[in-house]
Amino acid sequence: MTKNKGFSLVELMMTISVMGIIAIVGIPKYMAYKNKAKTAEAKIILSAIYTAQQNLKNQYDSYGTCLEMGGFAGPSISSDRFYAAGFPAHNAITNNNIVNNGGSGCDNTTTNAIEATKGFKGQIATAADLVASTNNNSLATTGVANDGNSYTASAVGFIGESIGNSQNNSSKDHWAIDENKGLIRYTNP
Predict the structure, then answer these.
(1) What is the DSSP string of 24-60?
(2) Is 166 buried (19+), middle (13-18) or exposed (0-12) by CB count in 10 A?
(3) What is the separation, in whole angstroms, between the first and last Cα of the chain?
(4) Rounded-to-integer distance, Cα 60 and Cα 102, Å
């Protein structure tokens, strides 16, 4: 009497079925966690912008769009960034207030935003996306108020597929922070 070694067809089919079920449940969960991890970048950059703005306000009695003067260096050029962050344009009025209060080098040539270096399926966020995000009335208007007493800075990135999107286009993930350190997330599918 010889004994056959190996697996039966039923055993193989059951194993493949279990692996398929695990993949169906596991892959979307993995992608959701991966995208959630990417959002930490936006929070870190906006926190650094908040600190830079507080430095400007404490030293020069005004918020401004010259982030470097406040100590904001941003991530290095070579780093992979999924988010563009900062202000879409300079505010010459508040930057002049800073210069008038003793700040030098706060002009319209200094850094007001950083751009992303990576994106989902080739969509990479730029400073222009910061402007586009402010055109939707439900979103915070990104910029510094002319009196220099308030601001809203934004971070925009293309991090993954939007839910229910059959065309595999990415969703625009938009975060904003203000002078009260109020962090708000807006997601535009």
Answers:
(1) HHHHHHHHHHHHHHHHHHHHHHHHHHHHHHHHHHHHH
(2) exposed
(3) 66
(4) 7
For the chain, list the strands marked E by DSSP.
83-86, 113-114, 143-144, 151-161, 170-178, 183-188
What is the DSSP code (8-state) at residue 91? -
C-alpha span between 4 and 6 (Å, rounded): 7
Q: Please tell me the distance from the alpha carbon of residue 74 to that of residue 135, in angstroms, as a whole number.
A: 25
User: Which of 138-156 are b and which e, b meaning 16 or more Cβ less than 10 Å from the residue's Cβ?
Assistant: ebbebbbbeebeebbbbbb
What is the amino acid identity at position 147? D
Amino acid in position 185: R
* Dmax (CA) of the chain: 100
- Asked if 187 contacts 42 with a C-beta cutoff of 8 angstroms, the reply is no
- Residues of the chain whose pLDDT is less than 50? 137-138, 163-169, 189
What was the pLDDT predicted at 136?
Answer: 54
